[in-house]
Amino acid sequence: MKKILFWGISSLLAVLVLVQCKPNTEKTEAVKTEESIVKDSNSHQITVKEVLNANAYTYLLVTEAEKEYWIAVPKTEVTVGKNYTYEGGMEMKKFESKDLKRTFDSVLFVEGIIDPNGPAVSETTSTPVKVVSSKVLSKGITLAKGGISVFDLYSTRDKLAGKTVILTGKVIKFMPDIMKKNWIHLQDGSNFNGLNDITITTLEKVKVDDIVTLKGKVVLNKDLGSGYKYDVLIEDATVVK
After folding, report:
1. CA torsion, points 174, 178, 181, 185, in degrees to nearest 10?
2. Are residues 100 and 166 in the same domain?
């Protein structure tokens, strides 16, 4: 009888210890903002159930295991019923698409999806390719007064950190209304050690293939989490007329 009582008390103490050591997940969840939650950057395998095309994005209703949710990618052709993969992403709560006149409870914005059954890239050589920097601008692009090129930006970025610069180039990608900002990828034809594209945040609206001049602040080593890290980023840019 004493032995049974001893084990009973021991078991009760063990349960109490486990309960006290249980992590407080409610406090962890409370730290997350309602507007945006950065997702883990692991790989996801999805099946597309529905496709909605807007001006800049393609919205996809997808399933992953037994979960169903919406993701958004830069406008692209997607096949319903096909399997794709993606990594990372940034979730936006109560996101309103003005193009679709629809508010999503949740949309996960990702840089793109991959067709695992697409054509494989052949590895023809293991010899490293030498990247040559170039100051030459693309035809039709002329730097504005006081402006610098993409080559100038990357080659002297340490000196330009925190300063305001002027850039002229072609809009390669335009992603509106993410984290209350529009995101632009700009190129002017020049490159520094292969770096030829600069990401810019702005409230301005532009179109892909537009040649624009933008003025903004240089920020280095900007880490938004989930794999979205920028060695050089131009923030809060405005269009220079």
Report:
1. -30
2. no
* Any domain includes 29: no
Dihedral (C-alpha) 228, 187, 213, 161: value to the nearest 10 degrees? 50
Residue 103: CA atoms inside 13 Å, Cβ hemisphere, count?
Answer: 3
Per the CB < 8 A criterion, the answer to whether 176 and 217 are in contact is no
Q: What is the pLDDT of residue 40?
A: 44
51 occurs within a structural domain:
yes
pLDDT averaged per 10 residues in sequence order, the chain, 241 residues: 42 37 38 40 85 88 94 87 88 85 90 74 44 84 95 96 97 88 93 90 94 97 76 95 86
Q: Which residues contact 167 (CB under 8 A, 6 or more apart)?
A: 147, 148, 149, 150, 153, 186, 188, 198, 200, 213, 214, 215, 216, 234
Cα-flanking dihedrals φ and ψ of residue 215, to 5°?
A: -125, 120
227: left (phi over 0), alpha (psi -120 to 50) or beta: left
Q: How many CA atoms lie within 13 A of 122 on its CB side?
A: 1
Let me know if residue 228 belongs to a domain: yes
